[in-house]
Prior knowledge:
Blueprint: E1 4-7, E2 36-40, H1 68-86, E3 100-105, H2 111-122, E4 126-130, H3 145-152, E5 158-163, H4 168-175, E6 180-185, H5 191-205, E7 212-216, H6 223-232, E8 239-243, H7 252-260, E9 264-268, H8 271-277, E10 280-283, H9 295-301, H10 309-314, E11 320-322, H11 343-363
Parallel strand pairs: 3-4, 3-5, 5-6, 7-8, 7-10, 8-9, 10-11
Antiparallel strand pairs: 1-2
Helix pairs in contact: 1-11, 2-11, 3-4, 5-6, 5-11
Amino acid sequence: MALRSFTSPASFAKTHKQIQPNKALPLFSISFSTPKCHAYTIKNPTTSLKAKPNFQLEDVIESQQFDRDLLNGIFEVAQEMEAIEKDVSSPGSNMLKGYLMATLFYEPSTRTRLSFESAMKRLGGEVLTTENAREFSSAAKGETLEDTIRTVEGYSDIIVLRHFESGAAKRAAATAKIPVINAGDGPGQHPTQALLDVYTIKREIGRLNGIKLGLVGDLANGRTVRSLAYLIAMYPDIKIYFVSPDVVKMKDDIKDYLTKSGVEWEESSDLLEVASKCDVVYQTRIQKERFGERIDLYEAARGKYIVDKKVLEVMQKHAVVMHPLPRLDEITVEVDDDPRAAYFRQAKNGLYIRMALLKLLLLGW
């Protein structure tokens, strides 16, 4: 297995706090022909995942930083975290005792923020949090993101950041000397959501190879579908269907990436036809907050594609409906009782994935 790295303007390595400093892994970064940074190292390339390889995650910024071996390793740790969550007396429930996580959320969040905070507490750590940091932090006074990060890293061991600007997480990671997790950066990416989505697909469908995936709704502004497209493209025999109103079609950068990665994709205006073919129907809401003053465009897009009983009737028995939540009217409540409605199980899986990431970022493998 080769060294992999993040895409970023600079090349550097971080030193992170370890429970056992004398056993901390050496970190290094190298330069490629294109700018790279935040490398994770592989001490012994021949070591199997089950033997807990010496990958070193430094930050979680974008889906492209992962490969299939690393994903498999993260998913194995997530299963371990599920066992810990179900047994509060487990020794593992105190593995992050003495660690502090800072959550900086410049945009609203329920599931992401609470699941990260729950993940930290279930592993014995503590949380420093600010909600609506855009208004109720020094950002309202004009403080730069970089200055905020430099300050907060003095109080904590890891930072979880949600920001309204695409690329903000990369800026934060380039500034911080402690791990940074991207919890969503505007219309950019949401890599931890993509991780939990792929983990959910694996658990619900039983495989990740040969998946037919329908992405529905706001594909232009949806950071969740962008991150998921990058991640699922790492598996063979994938086909992706894009179903969206014209004003929020999937952007060309994702289409070009899929084409270059050998992933088959097509656009469709027929949700019923797509749903009949797919293993996963991944619905998203039309994001009013991304339309600015163009409310007319929002109203034109809203309600065009809805998952309801008609969609369930054409779906295959093994297929599932997923949604990153929150939903508005794009999935009717009558769908909730169908066993193929996986979105609340999907949200719960987010806890296990985020527990795994906190463990790996702070303690290693």
